[in-house]
Every structure is written in C-alpha cells, then in structure tokens.
Amino acid sequence: RRLFFDTHALVCLLEQNGFTTQQSEVIVSALVKIMNTNLDMIYKDMVTKVQQEIALQQVMSHIGGVKKDMIILEKSEFSALRSENEKIKLELQQIKKEVMDEITKVCADNKLNLNLEKTRVKELHAQQDRALTQTDRKIDTEVADLKTMLETHKLDNIKYLAGSIFTCLTVALGFYRLWR
C-alpha cells in the first residue's frame, strides 16, 4: 500500500518538537496501523471496476426485462383500463344528460305550478271584487230604501203635524168664535 504522507518527515518533525526517536517512530507506526485499518474497512465496502461493470450489466438486463413487461402490460392491462375509463365517461355523460333532463322537468313543473297559483289568486281576487261590488250594491240599495222610508215618514209626520196644526187652529178659531 502507498501512504499519502512522508513518514520520515513526520518522525523528524516530532523529534524537533521534543519527542525521542523511539517515541516518534512508535507514534508514526501507530498512525500507519490506524490508516491501514481504516483503508481495509473502506476497501471492504468498495467494489472493483470489473464487479461494478458486471452489476451494471445485470441492472441493464433487468431494466430490459422490465421494459418488455411494461410493453406487455401496456398492451393488455392499460388498454383494458382505457376501455373501462371510456365506459365510465359514457356513463357519466348519460347521467349528466338525465340530471339535466330532470332539472328541466322540475323547472317546467315549478313554472306550471306557479302559473296555476297566479291564476287561482287572480280568480280569488276577482271573486272578492264581485262580492265586494255586490255588497256595495246591497248597501246602496238599503241606504236608498232607508232614505225613501225616511222621506215617507217625514211626509207622514208633516201631514200629521199640518193636520194637528189645522186641528188646533180650527179648535182655536172655534173657541174664538164662541167667545166673541
């Protein structure tokens, strides 16, 4: 294995900073062991280029198989789904048409009922107007009859009053002649 730093330069640097040669070599030796252990761990998880190409070829063959399966599914199941979707669309259009027809029918029925109610109300108003007119006529007739009766009684009273006055005058003139 290649190391990516100069071990002798590190030993010299440690010696310059107060370590003995033996201590410096032990420290560098420990660092080299640690690095080798770490590299072994890293290399264990890594694959070689040949292994990577083999895995890539396997993945590509699986992708090709999946593409073939997708084409088959598209021709069979997707066409079935499309036809089912078309059936549902047609059913929805039919239901929409039925709902619109029902709404039109309900609107027409409501308009007819409203017109019938208007006619009934107008007829009721006409009947009330006729009844009111008849009542007015009866009242006018009764008032006219009362006025006629009042005039008749008035004339009778005037006749009786005039008769009473003439009777009193006659009696007074009779007494006047008798006294004279």
Explain this structure to me?
The chain is an all-alpha fold and 180 residues long. It has one domain (47-177). It is built from three helices and no strands. The radius of gyration is 65 Å and the shape is elongated. The mean pLDDT is 90. Belongs to the CCDC90 family. Its main location: mitochondrion.
Sum up the structure in keywords:
single chain; 180 residues; mainly alpha; 92% helix; CCDC90-like; transmembrane; membrane; transmembrane helix; coiled coil
Compute the number of helices: 3
Which of globular, elongated, flat, extended, rod-shaped describes the shape? elongated
SSE topology string:
HHH
Oligomer state equals single chain
Number of strands: 0
Contiguous low-pLDDT stretches (5 residues minimum) are none
Mean pLDDT over the full residue set: 90
Task: Report the structural category.
Answer: mainly alpha
Compute the separation of the termini in Å.
Answer: 189 Å
As a percent range, the share of strand residues is under 5%
- How many domains? 1
Q: Roughly how much helix do the residues carry, as a percent range?
A: over 70%
Structure summarized in a few sentences:
With 180 residues, the protein is an all-alpha fold.
Write the layout of secondary structure elements.
Layout: H1 7-16, H2 21-45, H3 49-179
Helix pairs in contact: 1-2
